[in-house]
Amino acid sequence: MAVHLTFDDGPDPRWTPRVLEVLAEAGARATFFVLGERIAQAPEPMLRAVAEGHEIALHGERHRRHSELARDELARDTERALDRLASLGVHPARWRAPWGVETADTRAVAAELDLELAGWTLDTHDWRGDTAARMYERCEPALAKGAVVLMHDGIGPGARRADCEATAQLAAGLIRRARRLDLRLEPLAFGVEAREPAA
Fold first, then answer.
1. Residue at 195 is within a domain
2. Most buried among 49, 87, 108, 112, by the most CB within 10 A?
3. 120-177: per-residue pLDDT in tens?
């Protein structure tokens, strides 16, 4: 029985390492949905995540809603990010659309590129800037076998917070709770069905 912690919008040179520290201290592994443009700016945190046994998955080249992109633009965006990752020896199997906004074009491009679309079952809403304690109180009752937890190790568009420290603290609390429930902390690569978002 497992819980899957996932992090979007990185890699971030400050906050991805902070999240990785929390995971390393607990011996937990997670899935990171990364942005190509941020890999270009700071590849080291992502490479560290790979070295420490975490799964790297695709978020996109840019953080754009798929509903705002023509199919050829979406395909180019996706292929560019995949090329960046491939140049670093990373070949993701999963893709989470920014904001979870999937379109018919999303599904077509995913099929063409052999990418599995990934959603979540538990949204922490950490981008809003709530305290770790408040987020934990809201999320703890839904932490159960098979949960796919959405968090962010980078500051994305629309975020109402200045940093990701509360996310790191929340992750630590959720890991402790999962352990008390005798749940493993595993990347999505270990297998799960999470299809909540699909606009």
1. no
2. 49
3. 999 999 999 999 999 999 999 999 999 999 999 999 999 999 999 999 999 999 999 9
Residues acting as catalytic residues: 8, 152
Residue 26 lies in a domain: yes
Q: Which two tokens stand for residue 97?
A: 């659309």
Report d(CA 126, CA 118) in Å as an integer.
19
Cβ-Cβ contacts under 8 Å for 73 (sequence gap 6 or more): none
What is the distance between the alpha carbons of residues 125 and 29, in angstroms, rounded to a whole number?
A: 21
State which residues form the domain around 25. 2-190
Sole residue written with tokens 């695709």 = 58
Q: Which of 6, 22, 43, 45 is nearest to 148 (CA)?
A: 6
For the chain, how many residues are written? 199
- Vertex 29 angle, CA 120 and 129, to 5°: 55
CATH number, domain of 186, equals 3.20.20.370
* CA 99, chain centre distance (Å): 11
Q: Give the predicted TM-score (pTM) of the model.
A: 0.95
Could you give the number of structural domains in the chain?
1
Do the domain assignments include residue 196? no
